[in-house]
Each structure stands twice: as structure tokens, then as C-alpha cells.
Amino acid sequence: MPGTAPWWRSAVIYQVYIRSFADGNGDGVGDIAGVRSRLPYLKSLGVDAVWINPWYKSPQADHGYDVADYRAIDPLFGTLEEAEQLIEEAHRLGIRVIPDMVPNHTSDQHAWFQAALAAGPGSPERDRYVFRPGRGPDGAEPPNDWVSSFGGPAWTRLPDGDWYLHLFAPQQPDLNWRHPEVRAEFESILRFWFARGVDGFRIDVAHGLIKHPELPDLPPPPAGTGRRSEHLDHPHWDRDEVHDIYRGWRKVADEFPGDRCFVAEAWADTPERLAAYVRPDGLHTAFNFDFLMAGWDPKDLRTVIDDSLAMLGAVGAPATWVLSNHDVMRHASRYGRRAARRWVANERYAPQGPLDLELGTRRARAAALLMLALPGGAYIYQGEELGLPEVEDLPDSALQDPVWERSGHTDRGRDGCRVPLPWSGQGAPYGFSPEGSPAAPWLPQPADWAPLTAEAQTGDDTSMLELYRTALRRRREHPALGDGSLTWLDTPADVLAFRRDPGFLCVVNLSAEPYELPAHSAVLLTGGPVEHGRLAPDQAAWLAE
């Protein structure tokens, strides 16, 4: 229809962490066949698109974020033909498909890096990556003091004396994005997948591609914690030159019909810095990590919402809202700590205090209604619609995240939010793998997850799954929801309430006492019971005026 806004401005996108979504062949690892078998579930949930974590050929040193071939599917997950069939089947159901793109680094098994190793110091092949001689006597010290996001130094020395940069694991060498061959190759990769029907890409580490040409040592950390007042000139994060890359990518996307889009995983110091990624000639959307990091605190949440809408609106981009993903503790567990503190960027979110999962689940229900009522788009991480908590008691022997080894067994990593989904049944594998499969799920599932399966929750109006299904259906039906704006209502400081025209109110009670709802004609949806017109603590309601 002429004048209709692009779909991505208000889309609800479901994140499929493919290893843990559904196992189609019984080897204990999720795969494309498993995703295809669960497309009807995603249709019934009511999402607009799926973002699929990396499915490319990979040695799996970082579970697919170490890509050896961007034009091939890893046999662990299936084949290129199966990927094409998945795209077709999803489209028939009205679901768009957004794969991950990993441009900051490749696998050390990628043909380019293997050629660089064979060619030796000073060769053109090494110019595609970041190779440098070392410092100190005999070049025995790393070129600078940069550290890996997974722990330890960000440099590894080769037997020939050269050092190479890896901001993540040593098996993930960083590309040199100042090299024209690197830029041309990735634009070709984008065209390869766009031609196969994908609707866009989520860009991993979108803020990390460009490094300071002189590779200086890290600057001293800013004083204090929390949001910085101005951008820090960091030598390898969020450098201004990165936007030139994405202007080129936008041109590639615009070559193809159907509103193809990008979403950036971009960590930025301020909303203004984040907005730079989604200017009209750049990327389309960016994850709103400030919302994810906010504590269960009305002032914090309102500030994040206001800042996000103002800064992104100033460049004509929609806001996006996200509560969990494959890199952070699940929000039902984050909110289940009484303090539910704000998470500081670049700090691993570890458990703080005893877990009250009943409290966390109640807050998670309210947070879902808040997120889905806000202007713009939203992301759902697989399993949050089931109310899954973080699995905090995985045995040490089961941990597979490279963070666990790189940190010297001091950081348990991200495996707790990646445990395979429970679909049905009374015990593991809970329908994750076909009945009778010989292999156990790649991470062990808790023994008490039977009430959380999709099968157990379906048809139970009090369940988290039915709350999400109803919220997504009413979001599609109500003309006020999706992209647009909001108007805050006057409320006590510990209550959030806003109006969206026409005729919609959202109220979230973050106080310790019941709150009397504003005047309304009908209750559209609540996270819990409303008694005598009063909303209980840690509950949210959608109202019709």
C-alpha cells in the first residue's frame, strides 16, 4: 500500500540461537531442520521476523561467531539448500528472516587467514588482517596493551615473530577494514544472501570494525561508572570512520526490493553516539542496550525511554527495545534479585544476591508489556516467552563458552542463557531432540523445567507464553501500537504510565503498594489480576480509554 511504513520500523523480531532452539537430526545440537519444524510455533506466537545466530561454516570455537566461509552453511546446522528452503517456508507464513553477519573478525580457519599465515610477515595477504611486530627486546611484547573481550591479551604471536589482533578469542583474528578488498568482499557476501531472499542482517560488533591507525595503548578508564557525559576517543570501539562502511552497505541493501534492513549490535557511550549508526544513509535500526541494562527502577527506565526516543527520532529512526539475548543473563533472573540493579556496560552481569524467581517472573511479565507497548520495534530472545530463568548451576564440566577458559575459570560465561529450549514432555530433552535420539542436548537442561515447556503453557491463560501470544496479537490489532510516539501521564514517581493515540494506555506499577488505575473503558491485558481497579506491585496493564 502506498505510504505504508517499512515493516522494520515496528517489527517484533524473535532471536533464534540456533544451537539451542530445536534439534532436527538428534545429535543434541539445534539446526535448520529444527527451526523449520517450529515455524508454525513462531507463526502462532505472532512475531514478524526471526534473527538467526550464525549458521555459517565454522570450527565453532565461539559457537559460530568464528566464520570460516560466509557463503556456506556449517554441516552441524544443515546445508545451503535447507537454508533456502527455510527462507521460503518462513516467507509463506509471513515471517521474515534475518541472519547474523560477523564482519569484525573471521575464523583462523578462513581461507584468507590461512593464506596470511603461509605468506609470512610483510605480505599483502597479511594486510587483510591486523598483523604487527611486537614491542620490547626481540619483539617479545604485544604491540599494545589491548585486551580481549573474552579475557587475556588481544594479541597472539606467531612462530615467525608477527603478532595478530583478536579482540575476542585467538581463533577470531580481526579483519583490517581499512583494506579495500575486505570492504568489497563483504558487500559481495551481502549480495549473495540478499539474492537468496534474506530480509536483512543483524551486524555483530557493529561498533568494532575500525581501529585507530596507530594502534595506541588504551586510554585510562573514565572516572566513576554509568553513562559517560561525552564520547571517549577509544582506539577500537565506535570510531567515526565505521559509518562510511555502513553507508556502502545501505547502498547494497537498497539494490534489492522489499525493504531489506540492518540492525546494529552497536555499543555506544551515549544515545547520540548510537543514533549516528541509524542516520538516513546508514543502518536502519540498532539494539537499545540502555533499555536492557536498566534496573527495575522507574526513574532509570523513563530516562532510557525518553533519551532513546529523542535521539533516534532526531535522525528519523525507530527505537528498538530488548530485554534479553544470548550474551546476558536472562531477565527473569536479573529482575529476581530484590535490588535488580542497573547493569554497567562492559561488566559481566553476574548474580547478585539470592534469587526470588517468583518476583523475577512477575517483573518479567510487566517488562514484556512495557516493551511491547513502547513506540518502535522489539526483540524477543528465544525462551523469554516461556519465562525461562538463567541456568546458574550448570556443572563446570558442561561449560563451553570460551569466556570460561579465557578467564582462568573465574567467569562462567554465557552458557546459562543458552540452554536448549523445552518444548514438551516431563524430562530432558523436553522435545528439543526427536524422541529416542541417542545424543543428549549440548548443554544439560534443568530437571524442573516440565511446567515451562511450550506444550504445558499452551492454552493456560495465566502462562507467560499465552501472555506473549495475546500481547503480540493485540499489538497487531490496536492502531496505537507499533511505531509512533507516547505521552507520559502524571503519576507517582514509582509508577510509569503513558498514552498512545488513539485510545491506549500502558501502566506499570514499580512501587510496593497497589496503584489505582486511571480512568479507562476496558482492560485490554494485564500481567496479573486487577482487584477493585487497583494494579498490584510489579504488574503492568494495557487499558482502552
Write structural notes for this entry.
The chain has 545 residues and is of the alpha/beta class. 25% of the residues lie in helices and 14% in strands. It has 15 helices and 21 strands. The strands form five sheets. Strands 11-10-9-5-2-1-13-12 form an eight-stranded parallel β-sheet. Strands 14-15-16-21-18 form a five-stranded antiparallel β-sheet, with helices on one face. Helix 7 (242-254) links the parallel strand 9 (200-203) and strand 10 (261-264). Helix 6 (180-194) packs parallel to helix 7 and helix 12 (357-373) runs parallel beside helix 15. The chain is globular, with a radius of gyration of 23 Å. The protein starts with 11 loop residues before the first strand and ends with a strand.
Secondary structure layout plus pairing:
Layout (H helix, E strand, L loop, with lengths): L11 E5 L1 H4 L10 H6 L1 H7 L3 E4 L3 E2 L11 E5 L6 H13 L3 E6 L9 H9 L11 E2 L22 E3 L5 E3 L14 H15 L5 E4 L38 H13 L6 E4 L6 H5 L9 E2 L2 H5 L4 H17 L5 E3 L8 H4 L22 H17 L3 E5 L20 H5 L47 H4 L6 H14 L9 E2 L6 E6 L3 E6 L5 E2 L5 E5 L3 E2 L2 E2 L3 E6 L1
Parallel strand pairs: 1-2, 1-13, 2-5, 5-9, 9-10, 10-11, 12-13
Antiparallel strand pairs: 3-4, 6-8, 7-8, 14-15, 15-16, 16-21, 17-20, 18-21, 19-20
Helix pairs in contact: 6-7, 12-15
Proportion of β residues?
Answer: 5-15%
How is the largest sheet built, in terms of strand order?
11-10-9-5-2-1-13-12
The amount of helix comes to: 25-40%
What's the rounded overall pLDDT mean? 94
Q: Write down the Rg.
A: 23 Å
Unreliable spans: 225-230
Oligomer classification:
single chain
Please report the number of helical segments: 15
Distance between the termini: 29 Å
Total beta-strand segments? 21
* Main sheet record: 8 strands, parallel
How does the overall form come out from the CA principal axes? globular
Which class best fits the helix and strand makeup? alpha/beta
